[in-house]
């Protein structure tokens, strides 16, 4: 039994699955620019792009409908999350928050009122939202289907249609990711840093967000690398997921970091590096049926399948059109979805592509 076969031995066919794909299905030119938002719903997928279009696709990406479109730099889709099987929320660069219900067709838009007073970003980005976490994703707040936690420059914003409350996290770092841990605990990415925070929202008091500890301090001197321009930079964490008391983090220095949460040492001393990608790693994706295996996508145009037990890659895709910006689970545990786009799509004949992969056929 080879490494790949061994790593995927636990995969099974979901009884709910009613579709079958050759490997892989490729949908080309889905958008004219990079796809920042890729969401899985019960009856299809949603893509949101830098081209200002938001599209709803059927399960095999054969057809779609345009849910929203606005052309311009400020109208990029920057973040999105699923709320339920039939509803989701997305954010634009200009600070508009859009709720969609695909069952009723209802679309509600809100504009953020808070102006984030921080030196972290230019004025054009002061409303930018880089991540969204529905408060209902936290077990302690599962009945709250209207509140959101938004990752913004320097702060977490608690958004509700009736109010906004800003919680400063780090004065000089963007908040890239917000990930639930357990109860009301969150993992929050601030630039190249990763902290554990406690969120409370009791009726008798004002909501609060308190940092319990930095697992990776954003200012730690070891968190630096030289890029292709020989400039010293920090390896910002671009994506993250939580698994069995550890975080798996995609980083800009080409590495993926396994970061323990309950360590008694400095987290820096316990971090394990998965190396192999060249350039920024944009996304990591767990495989629900195989918790010791995960996927990653990067600037080098490849997708890699990793086995945590081996600490190594067990499969690498061919080089695709360009950076792989998203990898998410498909409608069966045997499938996953990826998006990729050339670095300069405006001067390329190839634009953003979506692929549907079958894990059982990766050897083919």
Outline of the structure:
The protein is mainly beta and 364 residues long. The protein is built from 2 helices and 30 strands.
Report what the structure shows:
- The chain has 364 residues and is mostly beta strands.
- The protein contains two helices and 30 strands.
- The protein has helices spanning 3-7, 267-270; strands at residues 25-31, 35-41, 44-49, 53-57, 64-69, 77-84, 87-92, 96-101, 107-111, 131-134, 148-152, 155-160, 163-168, 175-180, 185-190, 193-200, 208-216, 225-226, 232-233, 237-243, 246-251, 255-260, 272-275, 281-286, 293-298, 303-307, 312-316, 323-329, 335-341, 352-358.
- The strands form eight sheets. The protein has a four-stranded antiparallel sheet with strand order 1-30-29-28, with no helix packed on it. Strands 2-3-4-5 form a four-stranded antiparallel sheet, with no helix packed on it. The protein has a four-stranded antiparallel sheet with strand order 6-7-8-9, with no helix packed on it.
- Strand 21 and strand 22 (255-260) form a beta hairpin.
- The longest helix is centred in the N-terminal third of the chain and has 5 residues, at 3-7.
- The chain starts with a helix and ends in a 6-residue tail after the last strand.
- The model is unreliable at 12-22 (pLDDT under 50).
